[in-house]
């Protein structure tokens, strides 16, 4: 398996050299179920998934191994032009039954983030270790999605902060041990359940050399936070081909800095302060959208600095602001997203300062 992956990297590098073109960012697609009978909000039908994969192939996209591409980006090494990575969350058996044959036929590598509790109890709705081994032989990689898929920032009743952190450490380390036990290795990647993390959790990832993904949308670049990476959802409402094309043409927002106010929202509207790098950008064409609210108000405090503010506070749950801006060619959009958690007292979230 590793030799095939390395061969793919070498061939990709040769392709970059021959074409004289390269890419310094990576869109990562996120799927869950590949099924017509599972919840629509987290599913693509086999027909939709085939349409997506056919588009990638016919439009000349280079589907790359996720961990190898992340390593290259972090090391400032170029990726092949039109690189993209494919990922799945939750280890549903429909990935093996309906998704895997489609990717195998096209020779596409992919990553599945697995929560191991249903795998270990042999749930018929989830993958088996034997199926994972079979998928590994054709480009599949299996990574960490914790044991039980918890809200990682919520404490159980009566739990201290120390107890909570110990439980989260167990959730992460146990899956790493199971990956090594059953598959012989771990790619050292994790997807946060529900996309939720804080500085303590992200520091845990960094200490273990684990690259981790949230649920904010956008593309990965060398300047990304490799303990809180973005992906593009490609299921449910985001499964249309037109939506997919827009995301595949996204670039990282050219930011010098960002200020979000932390991981938690309050009873006041959230705001973000974005400072742009020097360059010629279509700043007047930038727009920011607040989940469930429409456009955010933009206050340009200088020629290269803007504050985007939501119109009203978020309700309890997760809220986000997405900002996009066309590039000078008009063919691509710069993309930025941030997610906040608005908690309620009965949910048991850890302190916002944790």
Automatic annotation (TrEMBL):
Transmembrane segments: none annotated. Residues 1-22 form the signal peptide. Keywords: Signal. Residues 82-284 form the NodB homology domain. It comes from the Bacteria. It is found in: Secreted. It holds the Pfam family Polysacc_deac_1. The keyword Calcium does not apply. It comes from Marinomonas pontica. SUPFAM superfamilies: Glycoside hydrolase/deacetylase (SSF88713). InterPro entries: Glyco_hydro/deAcase_b/a-brl (IPR011330), NODB_dom (IPR002509), Polysacch_Deacetylase (IPR051398). This is Polysaccharide deacetylase.
